């Protein structure tokens, strides 16, 4: 696959990777959000159509939105004509203002935008803490066009694509973008490649996420553009995300059935290194076990 570096003034530069003839991924940093990456520690991408470029995700800030813009320009002279929001966490949509200021329409499922509204105070606080600055200084704007229901099919520049809500994932309201001809899916944060996913307190519901992943797999995509890490095939996404979700539900479930208390369960299961090949596992694995225990215990 073709790898390109987007020329930017920042020390951090995302990598642009060709996935199909007309679809590219923009791969952000695998580490946590920072001032240097302007919150762009996720993967987004774009589709080149006859009418221009469709950008999937707008970044976390105006700074990271400019990184995405530069990544597109490193590949094509065609202008960005449309932005689609599929994710609820800040780095998938809080760069909207940069594109709306250029009169570029931003579209999303209404369900996704409703969740963005609900999570906005937390997103604003966490993002500003990560990149530096005051929460009130972040310019937050929502999609200029929303679609009711769980699915909306669009044809832009001759390319058919479908916004779909398959169920809650990393955040409630997370959606995917499915390109049937290309057999390609932009999963947003439903899929984490290369690095470990994180189960967020009161936000990420492990069993829902597990079920949503299985629905995505039923599409039988040949190409998966994850919300974090490099694009892959479905088998790789299964290994990095699906298998880990299954492990959490199964192993923590066994712990509860055995009436193992929270502290002992977290200590024992955190020592399991089956998924230690994933970046950030030392930071996130124990926390995810802890959250999964609390969720399953409450059922």
Automatic annotation (TrEMBL):
This is MBL fold metallo-hydrolase. It comes from Thiothrix subterranea. One of its GO terms (biological process) is antibiotic catabolic process. It comes from the Bacteria. Residues 41-228 form the Metallo-beta-lactamase domain. InterPro entries: Metallo-B-lactamas, NDM-1-like, RibonucZ/Hydroxyglut_hydro. Pfam families: Lactamase_B. Belongs to the metallo-beta-lactamase superfamily. Class-B beta-lactamase family. SUPFAM superfamilies: Metallo-hydrolase/oxidoreductase.
């Amino acid at each position: 696959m073709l790898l390109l570096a987007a020329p930017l003034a920042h020390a951090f530069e995302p990598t642009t990777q060709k996935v199909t003839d007309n679809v590219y991924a923009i791969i952000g940093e695998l580490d946590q959000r920072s001032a240097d990456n302007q919150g762009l520690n996720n993967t987004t991408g774009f589709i080149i159509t006859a009418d221009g470029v469709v950008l999937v995700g707008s970044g976390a800030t105006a700074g990271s939105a400019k990184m995405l813009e530069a990544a597109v320009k490193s590949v094509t002279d065609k202008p960005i004509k449309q932005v689609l929001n599929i994710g609820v966490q800040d780095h998938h949509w809080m760069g909207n203002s940069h594109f709306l200021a250029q009169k570029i329409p931003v579209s999303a499922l209404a369900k996704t935008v409703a969740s963005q509204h609900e999570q906005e105070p937390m997103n604003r606080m966490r993002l500003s803490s990560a990149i530096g600055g005051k929460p009130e200084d972040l310019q937050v704007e929502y999609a200029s066009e929303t679609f009711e229901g769980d699915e909306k099919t669009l044809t832009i520049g001759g390319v058919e694509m479908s916004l779909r809500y398959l169920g809650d994932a990393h955040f409630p309201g997370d959606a995917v973008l499915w390109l049937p001809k290309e057999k390609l899916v932009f999963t947003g944060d439903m899929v984490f490649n290369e690095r470990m996913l994180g189960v967020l307190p009161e936000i990420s519901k492990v069993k829902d996420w597990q079920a949503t992943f299985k629905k995505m797999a039923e599409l039988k995509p040949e190409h998966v553009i994850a919300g974090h890490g490099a694009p892959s095939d479905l088998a790789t996404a299964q290994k990095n995300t699906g298998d880990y979700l299954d492990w959490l539900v199964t192993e923590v479930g066994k712990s509860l059935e055995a009436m193992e208390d929270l502290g002992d369960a977290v200590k024992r299961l955190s020592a399991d290194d089956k998924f230690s090949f994933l970046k950030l596992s030392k930071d996130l694995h124990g926390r995810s076990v802890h959250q999964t225990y609390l969720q399953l215990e409450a059922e």
